[in-house]
Specification:
Helix content: 10-25%
Number of helices: 2
Order of helices and strands: HEEHEE
Number of strands: 4
Largest sheet: 4 strands, antiparallel
Shape: globular
Strand content: 35-45%
Strand order of the largest sheet: 1-2-4-3
Length: about 80
């Protein structure tokens, strides 16, 4: 979902993806150096909301950090059962 968003909207020329096992949880981090966006503005798209809902289905957390001109970073953390 996020990689699709990056390709469609970000104008990024660099994407970093990491998947880690940390303290009984799986952590997915995706960063791009694209145009970014204001996280306080209500977005019309459903992509980030879908990621958040999927994380919550597994009792996980979803964080997004972005601002105009500074790319975007998302973090998803899912606890292992």
């Amino acid at each position: 979902e996020q990689l699709n968003n990056i390709l469609k909207y970000s104008k990024a020329n660099s994407i970093e993806v990491s998947l880690l096992l940390v303290d009984n949880s799986i952590q997915l981090k995706i960063y791009d150096n694209g145009v970014g966006f204001d996280t306080k503005v209500n977005r019309k798209g459903i992509g980030l909301n879908n990621i958040k809902k999927r994380a919550e289905l597994f009792s996980g957390n979803f964080y997004v950090k972005s601002s105009p001109g500074n790319g975007c970073e998302i973090n998803v953390e899912i606890p292992l059962q």
